[in-house]
Amino acid sequence: MSVPTLAVFKLASCDGCQLTLLDCEDELLTLAGEVRIAHFLEASSALTPGPYDLALVEGSVTTPADAERVREIRARSRRLVTIGACATAGGIQALRNFADVEEFTRAVYARPDYIDVLATSTPVADHVDVDFELRGCPVDRGQLLEVITAYLAGRKPDIPDHSVCFACKRRGTVCVTVAHGTPCLGPVTHAGCGAVCPAYGRGCYGCFGPSGSPNLRALIPLLHRDGMDDRAVERLLRTFNAAAFDREVRS
Amino acid sequence: MTKNPAAGVLDRDGLSALVEVLIARGRTVIGPTVRDGAIVLAEITSADDLPFGWGTQVEAGRYRLVPRTDGAVFAHTAGPQSWKTFLHPPRERLWSAERAQDGTLSVTGDDSGQPSYAFLGVRPCDLRAITIQDRVLAGGRYPDQGYRERRTGAFLVAAECTEPGATCFCVSMGGGPAADSGFDLALTEVLDGAGHRFLVRSGSEAGQEILADLPHRPADAATRDAARVAVDEARDRMGRAMPPVDLRTLMGESLEADRWDDVAARCLTCGNCTMVCPTCFCTTTEEVTDLTGDHAERWQRWDSCFDVDFSHLHGGPVRASSRSRYRQWLTHKLSTWYEQFGSSGCVGCGRCVTWCPVGIDITEEARALHDERAGRLRHEQRKETEQ
């Protein structure tokens, strides 16, 4: 049996998610023994053209060139997994979706006509079929390893899409909203980070995007009660998963 | 309160000695302690860790720690955890498997030994909850071994309730602030001119034995009376009550109620109510493999009927809507639990009311369902009369 090949690609993103793979220090040597890293620019300049058994794609589609490239990646990959808030929800750059991107290019660039950019930043799944979407800004190291391990074992990854509250309660964190009156997006946010922020006494700011069944409309009055005005709520929702939360607000 | 010849009185030093004696006998003592703006349950190493001088103010969706001037230690209501955190932990490894180089598999059960717990300050509502989980997890044909070992080994020190909160409704669920059975020792905190002390009663041989090791004096009439009055008064100070109807029938006759839509619009489906509930027991199993595939483990972890994936069968979830998930939780808790386990699943501790971020109140929902049913019945009767 040949060793499966792993490829890592990026579109519009900060590289943080793919760095999470290099951050798997204890498991990195084992991983290198189980897969052949065929394309991973952050780790090596030795590239092979594919096809790839497992492709991890970071970043969102923001240009016509990205859209074309992700179709090529899909064509060369047996399994395509998107990693991170950019690839799964459009990222913070999806703030452009609420504004006029041509106005930005006119304001920023001396020659806006050189800029070939799409009006929106969109997740990879809007352009090609995706086998699995791993959320987070950045993705969680343990979850990334779980996805790769599950692929190698030929099983479904164990990545629950319930709320952050599940994680808070399992680790014994006192609810920051109920006990402190701190605004928190935990009840509508996808678990996966291990509920890091509430464990340090601050509210969740939704970097894993909406959970599997968020009821944002029911949470917003609580954010108001706990001191946020409309503008503050909008800013809280418009971060790394701006487009995904916006869709929930409108649904 | 039952009369017990073994009743005695402990002062604060006696309480300290209780913790010391339990630890000296190799027990991990779990008790209430202040952390992160709440009274949580955690391992304590001395009575100094207990929440002397702290109380709580609770409402639906709201919990605040407040200082008390009287120095009371058990005058607080249910925090975000219950004893199930220790008896039925959030995550537990069930077994591991290794694949040797020649391909043979070996499976090892997780028999690493269970801690010998002593629970200090178990409320009467939580004593009932433990009894309910005993039936669910340790009874029947397939008992949960880990639970059974932890439970049978545990030493329970009850603390009768003298300070119910605004979300408490144990009396309307057939319980009350007094501890009658199911404990090794029961304490009733007394604070009056004669000082801060605890009436202590033993409820088992093990309790009797520990009590003998503690500095205590025989129970005097004044302490007994003060303890009885404090508990009796607590009975009348429950902040909430379930509607005085047969909840089991009410749920069965409310399956198509409009109220479920109303509550579904407010429900976050975040799962907090089930996680804080001292009787909710649902779990899922998680298979963990390592990168090489040579090592695998099976873990059990808390799950919830509010998780869409909880009812996922072939093709999708059975309970996709939040209406159906909330209805499942409430009807199971108050009604179908009887068919399954012979009692209600609710003890009236109020945790689900307090710790629901949006403050959904199980007693208010039951009352609304009751009102809706009453309206429906009136309407039907009117129609019959008109015919």
TrEMBL record, chain A:
InterPro entries linked: Hydrogenase_assoc-protein, NADH_UbQ_OxRdtase-like_20kDa, NiFe_Hase_small_N_sf
Keyword Oxidoreductase: yes
Keyword terms of this UniProt record: Oxidoreductase
Segments forming domain NADH:ubiquinone oxidoreductase-like 20kDa subunit: 14-150
Superkingdom as given in the UniProt entry: Bacteria
Alphabetized PANTHER family for the sequence: COENZYME F420-REDUCING HYDROGENASE, GAMMA SUBUNIT (PTHR42845), CYTOSOLIC NIFE-HYDROGENASE, DELTA SUBUNIT (PTHR42845:SF3)
Protein name as catalogued: Oxidoreductase
TrEMBL record, chain B:
UniProt key word ATP-binding: no
Entry-linked InterPro entries: 4Fe4S_Fe-S-bd, 4Fe4S_Fe_S_CS, Helical_ferredxn
Keywords: Iron, Iron-sulfur, Metal-binding
UniProt-listed Pfam families: Fer4_22 (PF17179)
Family matches, as Gene3D superfamilies: Alpha-helical ferredoxin (1.10.1060.10)
Domain 4Fe-4S ferredoxin-type: 256-287, 337-365
Name assigned to this protein: 4Fe-4S dicluster domain-containing protein
